[in-house]
Amino acid sequence: MSLGKFAVSILAVSLALGGCTSLGVRQVGVDRVDYVDKLRDSEKQQLLSNIVAMRYGDAPLFLNVTSVISQYTREASAHAGATVNPASDSDGDSVGGEVLLRETPTVTYTPITGGRFAHSMLSPLPPASMLAMMEAGWASDDLLRVGVRSINGVANTSHAALFEQKVDPRFEAVAAAFRRLQKSGAVSVRLKERDKAYAGSALVGPDLTDADRADLALLKDVLGLKFDGGETLVVFAKGGGPHELALATRSIFEILSELSLGVETSGGAGPADALIRVRSGARAPGDAYASVRYRGRWFWIDGADDRSRRIFLLTQLLLFLNDEEGSPHGPLLTIPAG
User: Fold this and answer.
1) What is the rounded CA–CA span in Å between residue 196 and residue 176?
2) Are 191 and 135 in contact (CB under 8 A)?
3) Percent helix, strand, coil in the chain (nearest 5)?
């Protein structure tokens, strides 16, 4: 090989080895999407695992991802050799190189224990969180069925042994009436900050249909409310006055206990009015919304079960909202990729 061709070969190898100067820029988009997908799936699996575990009498345990550090190392090497005046029937020149890209991710988990566990799992949900979700448009009937023990003393269904209570058959009618009034705009929920605390109120709109009036009449009769067009204060209590909507909320632990009753075991399915349905079998279907393996058996939420998917998502959001002592910026994702 002539010296000119040899130099061109060396230059080509050098450019190839040094051409990854924008590695960091390219990796940001790829890593961000990949980690988001994995973290999202992991959160679903963790929640489903705890629901199933509680069905078998095990205590819930949550591990929060507090940091994800992905370190990239790029190693490049090149080699070249030449023989002066080689034999005519041999080639004494060689040019080559290699680039090695190595990823070393580090994930940090923090268990929820002690005071943080007591606050996020055992304390009743703040009514402000539920009102904020109603104000944002979340279905009021789902929120009431999942997160409330009673409304003005009207008791919700509760099958869990630790929290079992006598059910008031009027609760479902109350929850459905609230949902219809929410959809029509006849009743709106407002959340206001007062003295570093949040106060909620329900307002009745001016333009009511006959259906709206019928639903309001039902709420007045069952809950003992005035609903005369003025402001009705939302309070955290088992019972309230004629101008108070009293919500006795559940804890996350109680919500998970109720959800666990919908887990299908070898002994059969749970109650017909369970909040969600968790199927089980030797293998989970590929289109399952969430699936987890527990005690040698697969458990999953059917991808076509809209109600169970909706209630599961709502529980996830309530769990996030109730974890006020968590890291405000976690998880932290650091990707050095220069």
Assistant:
1) 33
2) yes
3) 40, 30, 35
* 26-72 residue pLDDT tens: 666 567 778 788 889 999 999 999 999 999 999 999 888 877 777 66
H helix or E strand, kind and range, residue 199: strand 197-204
Tell me whether residue 328 is in a domain.
Answer: no
DSSP string covering 83-106: -SS--TT----EEEEEEEEEEEEE
Rounded CA separation 272/268 (Å): 11
User: What's the number of domains the chain is made of?
Assistant: 1
In a domain, 227, yes or no: yes
Contacts 24+ apart (CB under 8 A), 204-208: 204/228, 204/229, 204/230, 204/232
- Look up residue 138 and give its amino acid: W
Beta bridge pairs of residue 98:
77
Helix segments in 3-156, DSSP class H? 3-17, 23-55, 114-117, 127-135, 140-147
Mean pLDDT split into 10-residue runs, the chain, 338 residues: 53 51 57 81 94 94 81 61 55 60 74 83 86 88 94 91 89 95 87 67 84 92 79 79 86 95 85 91 93 95 96 93 58 48
Q: Tokens in use for 170?
A: 């009027």
User: Which value, to the nearest 10 degrees, does the dihedral of the CA atoms of residues 73, 68, 45, 125 take?
Assistant: -170
Question: Is residue 171, in this structure, part of any structural domain at all?
Answer: yes
Which residues constitute the domain of residue 237? Answer: 125-250
Would you say the C-alpha torsion 207, 211, 214, 220 has a positive or negative sign?
negative
Q: Is residue 35 part of a domain?
A: no
Nearest 5 degrees, angle CA 257-CA 148-CA 264?
30
Q: Bridge-partner residues for 75, per DSSP?
A: 100
Give the integer Cα–Cα distance in Å for 139 and 141. 6
Nearest to 204 by CA among 222, 224, 220, 223: 220
